[in-house]
Write a structure and sequence with these properties.
single chain, Rossmann fold, 3 domains, six-stranded parallel sheet, 23 helices, 37% helix, globular
Length: 622
């Protein structure tokens, strides 16, 4: 057997550089490169390998470990999970900074490979700098924190273990069902130890992503339910994108006169102006989608994990005897809410369903189709109203979104993650093409936005990328703005400044609070609380110090001119505009369950608790 002597880190890089995935006959180089921040746990191992190995993998310097994982996640999401970046860090705080990013990737079912450094496997220098010691179990390190947020976790204590670990890692990374964060913990001494690896291990390896067909029994059962449906509703999830099934979705809806609602992950799979498009579903959904959901007798859910926001905390589907059909590659997701599993790839499943329903001559009634169109038109009128909202007191958030939506081209991409903006975008944003709406809402991770924008731009270098973010989320994490400037990936960051965590402030006030701890204010000497003068933050000056082109915009009229200037720039831009708190859209025919204090010194809180209990009694529990 022919072998080659390499350090474990060198062997790792050599293997990563020769991994491919195949789908529908097309091959994609799976690992495009590595994000990293070097420290004593990886600089002399993986760092040495990247410096001197002959590799096509690009190395990108991160500026916050969590941020670089978010960027890698956004890249893989935008590439429909066919290309990824790995992320390497030192031990201790560098590694732990990646845990939040790992959870974000795993919850969203996005592949990302994490390579945190670890303590010495030999234990001779212990305790080393940044080592956490657990007296009762010396095998535990900081990297054990990755276990609950990783789909596969391993610690390599010998260089030859790399071979088994990598085969398992790529089994998970390329699996449409089980994918997520994969964490390989690499002790810093083992990274530098040499082993005679079989050369065959480094040969080109193609991982096949096969489309799972819908079984004939499941197909017959689904057809029987849909054929009897008078008021069906289709919910499109992220699986529609990952299966490249947007055309099949549109064709299915048009053929059978079936309305399509979208989850956050599924949005942009359907053009907003299609007569069967009823927009976002659930807590952040449209009135059209939520009214149809309440009376739907059959709900066909394509590629969604059915979060509480999608189902309005399981209160969305109120018709007695309504049945849920889950077209999903994951049996775990297909069992939710007592649904019927149609385990299959979204694209092949929709094609099979279409052909079978054509055979039985199914189509919804003209009356139902007219109702769908009426709801669609009524909702678009409401969007127009909100897009034109104005106030003498300042800028309205929905108006700012309307200006941006009108300005952007069809191929431009919007990126967001947390706060009140995902609700407004899910309800109001108008997309005409797939993959132009990039929302991280599985984890709703504050701080994802700027890093996510970088990842999206890397995946679509010819597109203009617009990151829309609240001031609270921007302050939390924006380090990869510097990476975008460093690498020449221009992104446009639009900060809507409402002086605090106003989304949660709204949630407080809706449940009896007068507002506490969520606005950016100085501490008051009179009350000893954070209700003094507002903080004054100069976002543009800070952005300019990093090398971005920055603008402070006072009103909607100035925003239109500034957006045109920003488009012409060649470096990343930051646009700050103040918006009024509570100027976002509100809920439409929806409810979100949160825990409300059963007893309180404030009567309005107790009243909110009783209201919550009434809602729970009317919801369907599964």
């Amino acid at each position: 057997m022919k072998t080659v002597r390499l350090t474990m880190a060198q062997a790792l890089i050599k293997f990563l550089d020769n991994q491919y995935v195949e789908m529908d006959g097309y091959e994609h180089k799976f690992v495009k490169g590595i994000f990293g921040i070097f420290g004593h746990g990886n600089v002399t191992g993986i760092g040495e390998a990247l410096e001197y190995m002959d590799t096509s993998l690009v190395y990108l310097q991160g500026h916050n470990e969590q941020g670089m994982v978010h960027a890698a996640t956004a890249y893989a999401k935008q590439k429909n999970r066919l290309e990824i970046f790995a992320c390497t860090s030192s031990i201790g705080p560098g590694a732990l900074n990646m845990v939040t990013g790992a959870a974000t990737a795993t919850i969203n079912r996005i592949p990302v490979l994490l390579l945190p450094g670890d303590i010495f496997a030999c234990r001779q220098p212990d305790p080393v700098l940044q080592q956490i010691e657990v007296p009762g179990d010396y095998t535990i390190t900081a990297n054990d924190c990755f276990k609950p947020v990783s789909k596969y976790w391993d610690r390599l204590t010998r260089p030859e273990q790399l071979m088994t670990a990598l085969l398992n890692a790529f089994r998970v990374l390329t699996d449409p069902v089980d994918t997520g964060a994969v964490t390989l913990c690499l002790p810093q001494d083992v990274q530098s130890e040499a082993y005679d690896y079989p050369t065959a291990f480094f040969a080109k390896r193609v991982h096949h992503i096969d489309r799972r067909p819908l079984a004939s029994r499941a197909l017959q059962e689904a057809v029987a339910y849909i054929k009897s449906a008078n008021n069906p509703l289709l919910i499109a999830g992220g699986g529609v994108h990952y299966s490249f099934a947007s055309d099949e979705l549109i064709d299915f809806a048009s053929t059978f006169g079936m309305p399509v609602a979208e989850t956050q992950a599924g949005k942009s799979a359907m053009p907003w102006n299609h007569p069967m498009s009823v927009g976002g579903i659930g807590v952040t959904g449209t009135q059209a989608a939520n009214l149809l959901a309440k009376d739907a007798d059959v709900i066909l859910i394509v590629g969604s994990r059915l979060s509480d926001f999608t189902t309005t905390s399981k209160a969305a589907f109120q018709r007695e005897g309504a049945r849920l059909l889950h077209l999903n590659v994951s049996a775990f997701d297909g069992c939710k809410m007592d649904g019927i599993l149609l385990q299959a790839d979204a694209k092949s499943g929709l094609i099979a369903l279409k052909n079978a329903l054509l055979d039985v001559g199914y189509r919804t009634s003209e009356t139902y189709q007219h109702l769908i169109r009426d709801y669609h038109l009524a909702w678009q009128a409401e969007v127009n109203r909100l897009y034109q909202a104005s106030s003498d007191e300042g800028n309205c958030q929905t108006n700012i979104l309307g200006i941006l939506n009108d300005f952007m081209n069809d191929d431009d991409i919007i990126v967001c993650a947390a706060g009140s903006l995902p609700g407004d975008l899910h309800r109001l944003w108008r997309n005409t093409r797939p993959k132009t709406y990039h929302l991280e809402y599985g984890f709703s991770c504050m701080g994802y936005e700027v890093a996510g924008g970088l990842g999206v731009k890397m995946a679509n270098p010819d597109a203009e990328v617009y990151v829309i973010v609240g001031d609270g989320s921007y302050i939390m994490l924006h380090s990869e703005l510097l990476t975008s400037i460093q690498e020449g990936y221009k992104i446009n960051v639009i900060i809507l400044n409402n002086a605090g965590y106003q989304c949660i402030n709204n949630l407080q006030r809706a449940h009896g609070s007068k507002g506490f701890g969520n606005e950016f204010r100085h501490r008051s000497k009179e009350t000893s609380r954070l209700d003094g003068h507002p903080l004054q933050i100069n976002f543009t000056q800070y952005a300019e110090s990093l090398g971005a082109t920055a603008y402070h915009v006072k009103n909607a009229h100035d925003l239109k001119n500034t957006l045109q200037k920003a488009r012409m720039e060649t470096v990343s831009t930051v646009i700050e505009i103040p918006v009024l708190p509570q100027s976002m859209s509100q809920g439409y025919e929806s409810w979100w369950r949160v825990g409300v204090a059963e007893v309180s010194q404030e009567p309005t809180v107790e009243a909110a608790h009783h209201s919550m209990k009434d809602k729970i009694r009317s919801a369907k529990m599964y």
